[in-house]
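Example: ABC transporter.
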Amino acid sequence: MNLHSEPLPRNKQIAYGVAGVVGTALVAELVLRSGVIDKPGLPIPSRVLGGVGSLAGDGTFWGEVAFTLQEWMLGLAIATVAGVVLGGLMGAFTKVFVAFELPVEVFRVLPSVAIGPILVLLLGAGMLPLSLTVALACVWPILLNTLYGVRGTDATAVQTARTLGLGSLAILTRIKIPSALPFAFTGIRVSASIGLIVAVSAELLIGGGEGIGGYILVNSANATNLDIVYAATIVAGVLGVAVSGVFAVVDNKVFAWKKGLAQ
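Written out as structure tokens, the predicted fold is:
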């Protein structure tokens, strides 16, 4: 096997990916139907696919999907603003970096979902604590990428700006932050997928039965609805793939020029 071969064309990548998914589903179907593995609750692919079909016409479910997407977008927006601002300041000013380095390192390793119950106690149940839980998970890739992007700003551009009389804050807002945008967007792209996972997880843990996580939790209480539970989980996964794909397209279109700089 040649591990250093040229990348496959996009259409072949998609074809092989689909073939892998279908092949895995067929093997699972045969194994579970044959009774080789006989354990109640395991998902039989054909039944789960039927569950996906049922969800397609379920207005209640799509209302919960809309709730999750709103929660995710609000959390990602909060994380983007906080991450770009604080990351930019930490990258540009040594005193700010020293002041926030320890808090960032401490909070970065804490699982945001574990902080969710505290947010519910402080803010009550609803969209806000869920979105803040998402924001706490999403902010770190954005902050760190922005920080490194600001620190990597071309020194000649900074020196030229100083020669023209620009102050530190003007250099940050006019030169360093704009030059760090491709790095920041990479952080946003990574955080977008993380945020959707955390959104569903937070709904399972601290939600009030709302969102995709709440829908899964409510239906999992009834053993006869397990196919629907698996189907809802698959829909959440497909949403994650779609989000990642959209951000990848935007990244490649808007910041295509950064690849030339990296070469």
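The chain has one domain: 68-255.
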